[in-house]
Hints:
It is a single chain. The chain is elongated. It is built from no helices and 19 strands. It has strands at 3-4, 23-25, 28-31, 35-37, 40-43, 48-51, 56-59, 62-66, 69-77, 80-84, 87-96, 99-102, 105-114, 117-120, 125-133, 136-139, 142-150, 155-158, 161-169. The strands form 2 sheets. Strands 1, 3, 4, 6, 7, 9, 11, 13, 15, 17 and 19 form an 11-stranded parallel β-sheet that branches. An 8-stranded parallel β-sheet has the order 2-5-8-10-12-14-16-18, with no helix packed on it. It is an all-beta fold.
Amino acid sequence: ANGNFLNPTTWDCNCIxxxxxxxxxxxxxxxxxxxxxxxxxxxxxxxxxxxxxxRSFAVNSGSFINNGTVDISRFAAWTGSVINNDSMRVNQLLxxxxxxxxxxxxxxVDSLSNNGTLKNLSGASITAQLYLNLDSVTNAGTITAxxxxxxxxxxxxxxxxLNFTDYTNAGI
Length: 172
């Protein structure tokens, strides 16, 4: 149901889920805590996960699939997979060390750091202030950033559009 993440009546189990529970959001949920998931976390079309204050969300060895709207200040994917099929706003830090696929829109990122595999697919867009690539990025969409650094360990493959004010490439 619509409601706060930490309210048991939001969930069909009438309980507060644990990080090791598979979670499916079919409504509008307010993230009123920092969260860490190790299994499956899915937001269905037309649903949302929106923070009530500055919050952090981490994925470790699980999966995060967004088919709705996400608005979180800090998002980290340590391992596992993230698939964004709709709208994601991460206004402070987006960190990826796993596998991350963007099929639609990621906006307002202050700092984007990729230390895994990031794929920005055709028709998709990412907008960030600072963008650091330490591993592998494949872009077939649009990536826009004020500053971008592709480090010596970074591999950046582009068939899409890149818009940078400042760009440093020490990698491939």
